[in-house]
Amino acid sequence: MRIDQWDPADEKTTRACYEVQCAAQAADDPVAPPPSYGPFGMYLRYGYEQEPGEAWVGRDAGGAVVGYYRITLPDLENRDEARGGPVVHPAARRRGYGRELLRHAGGRAAARGRTRFSAGTTADGAGGAFAQALGARLDLEEMRRIQYLGDIAPGTIEALRASAARAAAGYSLVSWEGPIPERYLGPMAGVLNAFNDAPHGANEEPAHWDADRVRERTGIIVRAGLMRGHSVAAIHDSTGELAAFSEVLIDPESPRWGRQQLTAVLKAHRGRRLGLLVKTEMLALLAAAEPQLDRIETGNAADNSYMIAVNEQLGYRAVAPHWKFYEMPVAAALG
Question: What is the mean pLDDT of the chain?
Answer without folding.
Answer: 95
